[in-house]
Amino acid sequence: MFLRSFGRCLALVAVLAVPATLSAQQGSKIGYINSRAVLLATPGYAQAESTYNTELAGFRDEVEKLQNSLDSMAADFEQKSVMLSATAKSAKRKEIDDRRGKLEARAQELRDKAAQREQELIAPIHSKVNEAIEGIRADGGYAIIFDVGANDGLIVTADKSLDLTQKVIDKVKAKP
Question: How confident is the model at residue 13 (pLDDT cuts 50, 70, 90)?
Answer without folding.
Answer: very low
